[in-house]
Amino acid sequence: MSDNLPDPMILVILLPLFGTVAAFVLPRAAPVIGLATLAAMTAAVVALGRAVAQAGAVSLPLAGWGAPLGIELRADGLALAMLALTALIGIAVGFGALGTFARARTSAGDGGQPTSRQRAFFWPLCLLLLTGMNGVYLGADLFNLYVMIEVISLAAVGLTVLGGTVTALRAGLAYMYASLLGALMMLLGVGFIYLQAGRLDFEGLAGVQPTPALSAAFALIFVGLALKAALFPLHFWLPDAHANATAPASALLSALVVKAGLYILLRLAEAGPFPGETLLKLMGILGTGAVIWGGVQALRADRLKLMVAWSTVAQIGLIFIALARGGADGLSDSWRAATLLILAHALAKAAMFLAAGRIKEVIGHDRIREFDRSPVRPTLAQFAFALAAVSLIGLPPSLGFIGKWSLMDGAMRAGNWHWVAVTMIATLLSVAYFSRALTGFLRFDRVRAPVTEHRGWALADAPPFMLALLAIGLGLAAAPILVILEFGQPFGVSP
Amino acid sequence: MTEMTPAMIHGLAGIAVFGIGLMGALAATDRLRRLVALKLCAVGAGFVLVAAAWRTPPAAPDPVPHALVITGIVVMISAAAVALAIIRRLHSLEAETDE
């Protein structure tokens, strides 16, 4: 690596941060600044990817101050995969946002913000969100992660209330409270861990002997992160917040933000004596609750975006089940299934929210029951929605299928057949609720006016379509993804 | 049971304050009251961290938790500011629709 250029790990965090400031100061140029920042950030991720591919895990003590006193950044295959995912979704949502905020909406009679204001504030918030996400992926100590997850929350709450309607503001405030409480629980837990172990960096935590007080601290952190990741029954804030945000914001919130909590749980599991047997069982039980409750609520939802938001609750539950399926190899094996599901869900859900936004925009409403009466059909957005649904349901060859397969395969090998059953129930429920929307798209017999299928495709149709194609197509590239995840061997040598 | 050191007393007090805040955050229905309760939680968590820094004199206290508390305070202030901005905006929007 040349000495003149800063380390790509620093760039990956600082570029979006500088972009945030620039986009805030120059609101007119915000879209250009945003896209340029995303491009530069992607280049930094690629550079980091090369370094990780060569050297395995790489770490960087900032300003030469290493752990335990200084802040250390660390990247391995898992972090790299998440960084790449975030850059990809950032770019896709960015292009989607160009389309969404380009059309001046005149129907702002619901107290919403004018489009120009939304566009001006979307970019700084989006870039700040990416700063926090990248910081979480690269953080190597608990306190740093706490700060980064707070940066994410602030940006996420901003994105939630971007529309400016009363419902969005209420949902955003509820989200803010939940997120603050989660963060404070994490902070208290971090304090306890420091009290017990005297260190907060993951490397230092690895050698710590488990004590009851330490377990209590981990339990606190778990509850805090479960609140942020919206694990049932702590999901109460999610459906309203994700359903009432503007489409690009929903896509970011659902695809990325909830994953930050999950990622920190994964890292904790990698580092320390966490989670214990009991906590793993609890994760599985709560995950099952999430799958069933989320599925049932998605079946009952009357609006498309609300249904997609409830499906996020169910899918998060499935990821926790993937962690809990355990078996003899424990987390050293099941983290792969969980990561695959995280990647698959992020791609498909971003595609789905962007597509749902397009559908709502073209048809004029997003009431699922009345889709089949609409004489206008946004075909490409509907197709993207269907492809994303295929991946979320887990039909082969999608990435969602690989994730679910890996979950069930591990559960079967460990003899935990009940997790296989729960996964099947989750699949059936998702088929049921997505079918509600898909039948609405495909039925034409209730249309009274002549059908005008094609109004010409807009730029905003491309991002959800590309993401949905990736959600399907990356299933065929599962082997290389697994190779990337193994760089630097998170969770030790694979069994 | 170990002897009650000042650090432990402070730590337990911190946990108690956190608990009071938690109760308030869960039970309060008023928006501002809930925010204040959450601030109380933050104070409690900060207390625990400060107590963690305590060393038997003449040893100097551990600086790391102090740094953590300061960062935590900054984070909490920014979060409270955002929450207050949303509350204010909601207040004026709801006043508009009531009229």
Describe this protein with a few key phrases.
heterodimer, A: 495 residues, mainly alpha, two-stranded antiparallel ribbon, 18 helices, 2 strands, globular, B: 99 residues, 81% helix
What this model shows, in words?
The complex is a heterodimer of chains A (495) and B (99). Chain A contains 18 helices and two strands. Chain A has 495 residues and is mainly alpha-helical. Chain A is globular and about 70 Å long. Chain B is built from three helices and no strands. In chain B, helix 1 (6-27) packs antiparallel against helix 2 and helix 2 runs antiparallel to helix 3. Classes of the chains: A mainly alpha (495), B mainly alpha (99). Chains A and B meet through helix 5 and helix 6 of A and helix 1, helix 2 and helix 3 of B.
* Number of separate strands of chain B: 0
Radius of gyration of chain B: 18 Å
Oligomer: heterodimer
* Extended strand count of chain A: 2
Poorly predicted parts of chain A:
106-110
Brief account:
Chain A has 495 residues and is mainly alpha-helical. Chain A has helices at residues 8-25, 30-55, 77-102, 115-138, 142-160, 166-197, 202-206, 212-229, 238-244, 247-271, 277-300, 304-324, 331-363, 379-393, 399-413, 417-442, 462-473, 478-485, and strands at residues 58-61, 72-75. Chain A is built from 18 helices and two strands.
Question: Which helices and strands, and how do they pair?
Answer:
The complex is a heterodimer of chains A (495) and B (99).
Chain A: H1 8-25, H2 30-55, E1 58-61, E2 72-75, H3 77-102, H4 115-138, H5 142-160, H6 166-197, H7 202-206, H8 212-229, H9 238-244, H10 247-271, H11 277-300, H12 304-324, H13 331-363, H14 379-393, H15 399-413, H16 417-442, H17 462-473, H18 478-485
Helix pairs in contact in A: 1-2, 1-4, 2-3, 2-4, 3-4, 3-10, 3-13, 3-17, 3-18, 4-5, 4-10, 5-6, 5-10, 6-8, 6-9, 8-10, 9-10, 9-12, 10-13, 11-12, 11-16, 12-13, 12-16, 13-14, 13-15, 13-17, 14-16, 14-17, 15-16
Chain B: H1 6-27, H2 31-52, H3 63-98
